[in-house]
Design brief:
two-stranded antiparallel sheet; elongated; 2 helices; single chain; alpha+beta
Length: 80
């Protein structure tokens, strides 16, 4: 497996890949990858790892970003 296994950073996308019968020359970018498509998210290559970590990162970020709103919802009514 050529993909890095650290959970602390997004894995680099591979070079020169055939995905779903289409050749992508050079290094893939995040704009090339459609994680909603099974061809990208289930391919068994670094794109699968990329999509999994992208989804996990979005979930973690949304939880962190919701904290101020939760605090406001809990403490605003008692404080008036």
């Amino acid at each position: 497996d050529d993909c890095p296994d650290s959970k602390w950073y997004q894995p680099p996308l591979p070079y020169n890949q055939f995905i779903d019968g289409k050749f992508y020359p050079g290094q893939l970018t995040s704009n090339d990858v459609d994680c909603t498509s099974d061809a990208w998210s289930s391919s068994g290559s670094c794109t699968e790892t990329f999509c999994t970590r992208l989804s996990d990162g979005e979930t973690q970020a949304s939880l962190v970003m919701s904290i101020p709103y939760i605090i406001s919802a809990v403490f605003s009514p008692p404080m008036g």
